[in-house]
Every structure is written in structure tokens, then in C-alpha cells.
Design brief:
This protein is mainly α. The protein folds into two domains: 85 residues, no CATH class; 93 residues, no CATH class. Helices cover 85% and strands 0% of the residues. It has seven helices and no strands. Helix 2 packs antiparallel against helix 5, helix 5 crosses helix 6 and helix 6 runs antiparallel to helix 7. It starts with 6 loop residues before the first helix and ends with a helix. 14% of the residues are buried.
Length: 179
């Protein structure tokens, strides 16, 4: 009688993380879509040759944000310094970022190991920047972004650990069976 797990058990273990990985894949895809929408907006602004300071004032007005706040003043100052070249560079970075997020989302949806490692590495790369933002300007949004990123990194690392542990167990069972 074999103690080797059946194919159904192996398949069930491989699919046990499907819902979680697909949830993370959707989050990554959403991040990519937001980046593309931002890139589209920047490209649209370049083509319209918009007065960026006026556009920034319109954004503040639209969201009912007082232009007298310190952050509003900084936003208006940055908008005044924006050039078409810097907008094109930001749009290019957004497109590359979105492509990476879509690539990662696809791989996680298909439960690819490379995508899990990519998610861990890319999530860890952002952590220092998120902590820095939180230290410099603590607010609820920074806490939420940091919390989500930490949860995603921990979850994907747990998935990788669980799958590595299961592979070692299968290997041990096969070597025990052969002995």
C-alpha cells in the first residue's frame, strides 16, 4: 500500500491558494489600470498644451480642497514647474509600471511560481518608500497602502513557503517509497 499522495490530493494542494492568488492578481491589475489611466491623462494634457497650474487649480476646486493648505500650495507649485518632457517621462514610467503589474497579475492568476517571486520582490522594493512617506507625512492613506502591501508580501511569501514545504514532502514520500 502506497503512502504517496494521490493525484487528486496533489492537485487539491496546488489549487488551495487559487482564490488568494487571484485576488492579489486583481489588485495588481487594478494598480496597472490606475497607472494607465494616469498615463492617459498625462498624454492627453500634453496634446492639449494645457496650463498645468490652471489644471491643478481646477482639480483642487473639483475636490473641494482649499488652495490655502500647505499640500495644496505644494501641488500648485509642482504643477507650475511641469513641462511636456517631464509629463512624457512620467507617462512612460506609468506605462512600464502598468505593464509590469499586468504581467505579474497574469502570472498570479495562472499560479506561476515566477509571478509569486516577482510579487514578493516588487512588494518588498516598495516598502522602504512607503515607510518613508508614512514617516514624512503620516496619514490614513499611507497607512492603508503600507498595510495592503505588507499583507500581500506576507501572503505571497506564505504561499511560496507552503508550496516549497509540500514539494519537499512529496519528494520525501517518493524517496521513502523507493527505499
Amino acid at each position: 500500500m502506497s503512502s504517496l499522495p494521490t493525484t487528486d490530493q496533489q492537485v487539491a494542494h496546488g489549487h488551495s491558494h487559487r482564490a488568494g492568488l487571484r485576488t492579489v492578481a486583481l489588485v495588481e491589475t487594478l494598480k496597472g489600470l490606475v497607472a494607465l489611466l494616469g498615463a492617459y491623462w498625462f498624454i492627453h494634457m500634453i496634446r492639449r498644451d494645457v496650463d498645468f497650474e490652471e489644471a491643478a487649480e481646477h482639480v483642487l476646486f473639483r475636490f473641494h480642497i482649499s488652495p490655502h493648505h500647505r499640500l495644496s500650495q505644494q501641488f500648485l507649485h509642482v504643477a507650475d514647474k511641469v513641462s511636456s518632457t517631464s509629463i512624457a517621462m512620467v507617462a512612460t514610467i506609468a506605462i512600464v509600471y502598468a505593464t509590469l503589474r499586468f504581467f505579474e497579475g497574469y502570472g498570479l492568476w495562472k499560479q506561476r511560481v515566477w509571478a509569486e517571486w516577482l510579487a514578493i520582490v516588487s512588494g518588498c522594493v516598495y516598502l522602504p518608500f512607503e515607510v518613508y512617506s508614512l514617516v514624512r507625512h503620516p496619514n490614513e492613506l499611507h497607512w492603508i497602502i503600507l498595510g495592503i502591501n505588507i499583507l500581500v508580501v506576507i501572503y505571497i511569501a506564505w504561499v511560496r513557503w507552503d508550496e516549497i514545504k509540500a514539494a519537499h514532502e512529496r519528494q520525501r514520500l517518493v524517496s521513502d517509497e523507493g527505499a
